[in-house]
Write a structure and sequence with these properties.
The complex is a heterodimer of chains A (184) and B (221). Chain A is α+β, with helices and mostly antiparallel strands and 184 residues long. Chain A is 49% helix and 10% strand. Chain A has a 4-stranded mixed sheet with strand order 2-1-3-4, covered by helices on one side. In chain A, α1 runs parallel beside α2, α1 runs antiparallel to α5 and α3 packs parallel to α5. Chain A is flat. Chain B has 221 residues and is α+β, with helices and mostly antiparallel strands. Helix content of chain B is 52%, strand content 9%. Chain B has 9 helices and 4 strands. Chain B starts with 7 loop residues before the first strand and ends with a helix. Classes of the chains: A alpha+beta (184), B alpha+beta (221).
């Protein structure tokens, strides 16, 4: 039975979808990207937002549509084996991915804040949590034998999420001197 | 998935609803052997894996500890371990997507409640997000044959995430913005109120629910 094919709906930006693109590519499945007219297509999306993943099955069953970037990433990672099925091992990868999402939330908060005090508050939180992330990730890579991977020997869900995270961080914060971990 | 009888859990968080209510309800529904620790803060910050709470400590019978953090990760781990998320990846993704949307909404609410400028725009955006969220709950419920649950016919992670969402906004978030409970209640349908009452009656949740104020009572008052 051939694999399903996928449509990833997003804007033509790195944004929240880079890890999804990496996962679809690494899964070696047929996929295309759609850039819907926005905001005209907003009401047609499950949560009125992007990204959205549409899975089309060759057996003729109805399309399966999901949303929320982290949810899409976890789904693809699980289906295509980039995260172990064992809940404990999966949780270890998910927690670092969730931490990265939290760091990016603070950055988004900073970018969107309109008052100086809000901006200062978000920037402080962003910097502190980014430092924690880098410390945790560095220990993880070193503990994994310094092989350029966070977990095991091969490309994992967490590695792809990390790449997407740092890519969007660099683009969003061109002026910010981030202490980039060794494996990027 | 079964877990060894001698396994016990410690949930570390602050003594508030906050981010831990879903974890508390999952541990309760699982009939797990668990306790809660409310660490001294910020004294205990450095001892946590990511310097934050919640943290889950799983202790095996021989005293080995396995520690995990981040709210969503803890919830999904407990839900999978104790069978409150289906093994079917599509079914799991549908429940998780709803929970992720709750987290987005919570973040949007806190940003709005704390904003000192351009508040009207944030209020408008939050209102639209909230309306869409509740509309989504209604759609999920309408699609489900059993009206006492959001997914399938028994208690799931989705039910717990749904209950926790409304409890958070009606019972806890007024501390950030005192009219939020009223705003949320005004958008809720009778079916949603009935479903919350039904979840609150779930025997599996009784040990935790009995220690809290009834959400259902607050909604029908």
């Amino acid at each position: 039975m051939p694999n399903p094919t996928y449509i990833l709906r997003y804007f033509p930006l790195v944004g929240l979808s880079e890890a999804c693109r990496l996962l679809l590519t690494a899964a070696n499945v047929e996929w295309t990207e759609e850039h819907p007219e926005w905001p005209q297509e907003k009401p047609n999306q499950p949560h009125g937002r992007l990204p959205v993943l549409v899975e089309k099955n060759p057996d003729g069953s109805p399309d399966f549509t999901i949303t929320e970037s982290c949810n899409i990433e976890r789904y693809l990672a699980r289906v295509y084996g980039f995260v172990p099925a064992d809940p404990k091992q999966a949780a270890r990868q998910e927690q670092i991915c969730e931490l990265m999402a939290d760091v990016f939330s603070y950055l988004s908060g900073y970018i969107r804040a309109s008052s100086d005090e809000s901006k200062q508050m978000f920037l402080g939180k962003f910097e502190a949590l980014l430092e924690t992330l880098i410390e945790v990730q560095t220990k993880l890579i070193e503990g994994n034998g310094n092989n350029g991977r966070q977990f095991g020997d091969s490309l994992s869900y967490a590695d792809m999420v990390a790449y997407g995270f740092y890519k969007k961080l660099m683009i969003a914060m061109a002026r910010f001197d981030a202490n980039v971990p060794k494996f990027v | 998935m079964t877990i060894a009888a001698e396994t016990s859990f410690v949930l570390r968080y602050f003594n508030v609803i906050g981010r831990a209510e879903g974890c508390r309800m999952l541990l309760t529904a699982a009939n797990a052997n668990w306790t809660e620790e409310n660490p001294e803060w910020p004294a205990a910050k450095e001892k946590q894996p990511f310097g934050r709470l919640p943290v889950l400590v799983e202790k095996s019978g021989n005293g080995d500890e396995w520690i995990i953090c981040e709210t969503g990760t803890i919830e999904r781990y407990l839900a999978r371990t104790f069978g409150f998320l289906p093994a079917d990846l599509k079914g799991a993704a549908e429940q998780e997507q709803m929970s992720d949307q709750h987290a987005d909404l919570t973040e949007a609410f806190l940003n709005m409640a704390r904003a000192t400028r351009d508040k009207e725009k944030l209020v408008e955006e939050f209102d639209a997000l909230l309306g869409r969220m509740i509309g989504e709950h209604q759609k999920i419920l309408s699609r489900n044959t059993c009206k006492n649950h959001l997914f399938g016919d028994s208690l799931t992670y989705g039910d717990i995430a749904f209950y926790t969402f409304y409890k958070l906004f009606i019972v806890y978030m007024p501390v950030y913005q005192n009219d939020i409970a009223g705003i949320v209640k005004a958008k809720m349908s009778p079916e949603i109120v009935a479903l919350l009452a039904s979840i609150e009656q779930e025997p599996l949740l009784a040990p935790h629910i009995s220690k809290c104020e009834s959400l259902a009572a607050q909604l029908t008052a």
